[in-house]
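Note to self: the last two entries modelled the partners one at a time, which told us nothing about the interface. This time every component goes in together.
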Amino acid sequence: MSSGAYSQRLPVLATIVIALMLSIIPLPDSLEPFRPDWVVLALVYWAMMLPRTWSVGSAWIVGLVLDVAQGTLLGQHALALCVVVFVTVRMHLLMRVFPAGQLMASVFSLLALYQFILFWVNGVAGIPVDAMHYWAPVVSGAVVWPIVNSLLNGVRMRVH
Amino acid sequence: MVTYRSDNSNPARIPALGIRVLVCVALSVLLMVLDHRQDHLSTIRKGVGIAVYPLQVIVDSPFRLWAWITESTADRSELQRELARLRAERVLTRAELQQLTALRAENDRLRDLLDARPRLRDEIRVAEIMAVDANPYRHNFVIDLGEKDGVYNGQAIIDADGVIGQVLQTGLTTSQAILISDPSHALPVEVSRNGLRTIANGTGEFDRLDLPFLPNNADIVPGDVLVTSGLGGAFPAGYPVAVVATVNRIPQASFADVTAAPSSALDQVREVLLIWSAEPEPSELENPEPAATEPEPDEATSTEADAPEDGDE
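The predicted structure of the combined assembly is written out below.
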């Protein structure tokens, strides 16, 4: 760990905390299903850019916090997040050179994988699920990805 | 191993990634199984919950600020109108309370005659809803009272109009609670008109409960008021829950299709009331005579309930 590592980590942690807050902020009922998975978007970005510091371990801990914040089965979001981040880290070199459209498509499939794991765990645990609720965040997440991407790019440029 | 200066300049593989992801997956599965099967993980939940608490406070603060701003900038005429309305409401409720006092005395007397235990009054405290679960198929919310305030798992939550839900998981300073409209929630109720007992299930919609276990010949009509029966043990008896909305008797089916509308607007509440049920003393249960003949235990608990005090003066 170099001395600069700490000052580099703090802004990243701040973006993840903001993503966590966005994911528990109350929304009107009609907008609720379209809430993007902010935490996934942030973690995918950092796993893609800084895979050595932000990898599956941190994703798992953030997922656990998300589980407690949302009152879901303990470990559900942790599992989904660490699998998604694992895939991202494996592909990070490829994803960095993807053109914007292709990157958005891969984020879309990562979000779909994330929601599929949540859906599957709910199914196994016998918690009633609604298909619409699982697909809406995938689409809205992919739509807001370019904004998240450029915002986090700004943060990363300032840090380095 | 060689240390690389930066992530960006390093094309090499991340060390031990596969092992780490396997450990994480295994831990998650273990946690989920433990959490789903038993309630062993409340300490973990509480620990992480303390870390989440400041986040919830921050997320909630703009709403509190907005409420404060609207409250402090409401104009004079509006406040006066509000005041007039509240005065009128107070006169009405006081009149009703007078009646209630008389009825309570009569009820106690009748219970004395029947040699029954007097009904104990419950202690009530106001809590504020801090956050609502993101998933509309799990109607959960977080309240700002926790274990330090004496909240316990399964505690009943009401608002001014009726039953809202119950505490699901206590934390140190906050608690997770479940609404009666959650699809996994079932509540023992009875029809106040005739005492018909049944179960009200949540449907995932805020304005509808299902009553799936009523036979076709059950004496139930739209407009019947459902109150808690107190049989499940979690809820004290006699709080309004819902009003029967539709009764659809299907001749070939074994059960009638009955739905009810919750008395309180479950999606609009901000403040809720937590009930500490007044449990009868074990000695009273074994020996009902003293409780039936003297009204002292009743008087002692009535000081804890805040509402009746105003009416008695």
